[in-house]
Every structure is written in structure tokens, then in C-alpha cells.
Amino acid sequence: VVLIKTEDLCKTYSTGTEQFHAAKKIDLEVYKGDFTVIMGSSGSGKSTLLYLLSGLDTVSSGKVFFKGQRIDAYSEKEITDFRSNKIGYVYQSINLIPDFTLLENVAFPGYVAGRSKNDVNKQALKLLKAMGIGEQADRLPSQVSGGQQQRAAIARALINSPEVIFADEPTGALSQEQGTIILDLLTDMNLTGQSIVMVTHDIKAACRADRLILVKDGMIDGILELGKYAPEQ
Ligand code: ADP
Ligand code: ADP
User: Fold this and answer.
1) What is the signed CA dihedral for 176, 177, 179, 184, rounded to 10 degrees?
2) From the alpha carbon of 169, which atom of ligand 2 is closest?
3) Which ligand is nearest to the CA of 14?
């Protein structure tokens, strides 16, 4: 089942008189339930593509469909609702709010979506426990490790039960060991049905893909069908 589809997708950045084409006529499909990985060297346009697929940035031309609906044609309000309810986003830089506890950080998008505080708090704690950091729920981000912060950021991305999780180099700021924990969590989530689209230039992270999309110079350079990653027992 096609979850996301692009047609002739282009993104051009303008800085003064200079123009840079970061996405060039991209036609792509992302399937529901897949762990899709977008791989390419630095500057190839991976983050740009993720921003466009997730509605975090506007297209220069072309179309982006999410379950058949054109998100590039959404109004400001529709795109805000879409970002808040349909997708979760995980960043390399983690981006937790420093003076919120982990629990408050995870719960926050639930409050923004207008859900009951009690429900949201319960679910936030459940998610933190599932990420193995239930004990740290009342700590501030500065009081836990980078890997634990990223686990909280994944919990935050999951709070509104999104249809898809986007992750931009989620292991990029972490040690090898912490990075593997994050990849294992994402793999587990995917094996229980969560659709994931992850950007990386790390081959170890790319190995988790069902479907590996290679990006080069703002274009698709190849697509590899790998099948489900088999976790070690
Ligand atoms: P990647 O994620 O593969 O490293 P990006 O999508 O971040 O690549 O960037 C692709 C190209 O677009 C790079 O050359 C980058 O410098 C340029 N770029 C990205 N964002 C902007 C921007 N806001 N303004 C101008 N150029 C940008
Ligand atoms: P990453 O490689 O993790 O995607 P980057 O360092 O490429 O991160 O980009 C981080 C931010 O800076 C992005 O929001 C991107 O749009 C912006 N950016 C990247 N390159 C440029 C550029 N040449 N000019 C302006 N903004 C840029």
C-alpha cells in the first residue's frame, strides 16, 4: 500500500542571486509498514527530501501525496494538523525542551493536539517505559545521556500515534553503542507495524531498511529492496 508518493518533486533554495536545486524531479513511493531508508553523501539532498515528504517544508514544484491527498496543496491549518496528528519527527539534534522533564517533553505534542492531560500523561509514561527510560521520566534532558534523550525524542514522536515516523540521522549525535540501541528500538517499532522513513549516511543504520533509496545530487540514484531486517536472537 502506498503511503507517500511524489511526482516531479523539486526544491530550489535561493540565497541572494544564487539558486541551488536540492531536489530535482523526484518521483518516489513510500510503502506503508516499510522501514524506508534514504541514503546519500552529505549535501546530496536527503534532509531536503525528508522535509518535503513530511510537509515540514514547502515544495518549489511538483506534488506530494499522503494516502492519496496532496499535502503540498494543504492550507496552513491543514498542514499544521497534519504535522501534529499524522507524522512524528526525530532529529539528529534531538531538540528536547531543556526545562521540561522527559515526561513533559513526550506529553507536550499530545496537549497541543488537544487531548486529555490524564490520557496523554499515562501514554507518555508507557512510551518512556517501552524505550527503557521509565525511571528517568522526571529528569530534565540535561540530567540524562544523549542516547536517553534521543529515546525520549522517539517517544515524543510516537505520542499522537502517527502513521509514519520520520527520522533525520537519529544516531548521528550518538556513540556507536547508543546508536545501536536507537536502531534496535526503531526496528522493533517497525516490526510491530510502524512505518518509518529514516535519513542516514551510516551504512550500519542503512542495513535496517526494507527499502533503501539512494540519493545523489538531488536525484534518486537507485532503489534497493532488502526485505525485513532479522534481529539477532
Ligand atoms: P543532506 O541532508 O543530504 O546533507 P541537504 O538536503 O541538507 O543535504 O542539503 C542539500 C543541499 O542543499 C546542500 O548543498 C545544502 O547546502 C543546500 N541547502 C539545504 N538547505 C538550504 C537552505 N535552507 N538554503 C540554501 N541551501 C540549502
Ligand atoms: P543535516 O546534514 O543534518 O541535514 P545540515 O547541516 O545539512 O544538516 O542542515 C541543517 C539546517 O541548515 C537545515 O535546516 C538546512 O535547511 C540548513 N542549511 C543547510 N545548508 C544550507 C545552506 N547552504 N544555506 C542555508 N541553510 C542551509
Assistant:
1) 140
2) 3
3) 1
Ligand 1 atom 25: the closest Cα is on which residue?
A: 13
User: pLDDT tens for residues 170-191?
Assistant: 999 889 999 999 999 999 999 9
* pLDDT interval class at 233 (50, 70, 90): low
Main-chain phi, psi angles of 99, to 5 degrees: -100, 15
Instruction: Please report the atom of ligand 2 found closest to the CA of residue 172.
Output: 3
- Of ligand 2's listed atoms, the one at least distance from the Cα of 92 is 3
Residues 6+ apart with CB under 8 A from 128: 102, 103, 106, 134, 136, 137, 151, 152, 155
CA–CA distance, 54 with 13 (Å, rounded to integer): 18
Compute, in angstroms, the gap from residue 165 CA to the centroid of ligand 1.
Answer: 21
Ligand nearest to the CA of 50: 1
Predicted ipTM of the assembly: 0.74
Q: Distance (Å, rounded) from C-alpha 93 to C-alpha 170?
A: 8
